[in-house]
Amino acid sequence: MSNETPDKGLTLKSILFNENGKFCLPCTLYKSFQYISGSTMDPSISSTPTRDDVIIKQSPALPSVPRSDLIPGSRTYVKEDPPDVNKLGSASWTFLHAMAAKYPEKPTPLQQEEMTDFLNIFSHVYPCFWCAKDFEKYITENAPKVKSQEELSTWMCQAHNKVNKKLGKAQFNCDFWKPRWKEGWDEQE
Ligand SMILES: Cc1cc2nc3c(=O)[nH]c(=O)nc-3n(C[C@H](O)[C@H](O)[C@H](O)COP(=O)(O)OP(=O)(O)OC[C@H]3O[C@@H](n4cnc5c(N)ncnc54)[C@H](O)[C@@H]3O)c2cc1C
Known about the structure:
Blueprint: H1 30-36, H2 85-102, H3 109-125, H4 129-141, H5 149-166, H6 177-183
Helix pairs in contact: 2-5, 2-6, 3-4
The protein binds flavin-adenine dinucleotide (FAD).
Flavin-adenine dinucleotide binds next to helix 2, helix 4, helix 5 and helix 6.
Protein name: Sulfhydryl oxidase
Organism: Maudiozyma barnettii
Main location: mitochondrion
């Protein structure tokens, strides 16, 4: 992975590749991924992309919003409300599954220990307290499987399915964790 951290603010980002030279989708924008894979010719991307530095021009202007909807003193930030259980949940699952999908295929003992610690701590600090309590119980009864990326991602899928079941939602087929959270659906039927 490039050692350079993006230093051009929120609208100018470098495309990053991971240590294997593969494109790192969680590190950049989806439209950059489409551009570099040749599936779009997005004019908002400037010169020919190189491995380490693809610059994206300013995003198109935000749709105009009444000034009263903006945070006082800001021309950018809308007065959004704090997240409810659903918004928090969806964002958190996105993080958890994306994290599992980037977990090493052969983690070191230290990485395994850190992931186990992280999940335990996460279950203590998750802001929805009854969600946290149930997740903590789940972890106690089903210790996180941290020996490989495949194991962890499947464990995460099953943990999510436990919550889906509790909420009366459909079960997600864990055979598909990889296209959903790592590789995309292009190669799938
Ligand atoms: C640890 C934790 C515990 C929670 N506990 C509760 C609770 O007790 N009560 C409550 O009301 N809410 C709880 N939530 C929130 C809840 O799980 C949902 O996030 C929320 O209901 C919003 O659902 P959603 O429809 O946006 O989809 P989400 O369930 O947030 O899912 C987001 C996306 O993940 C994918 N997905 C779905 N299931 C799986 C899976 N098994 N594996 C992989 N990918 C999947 C789908 O593409 C889906 O669109 C919890 C969230 C977390 C992170």
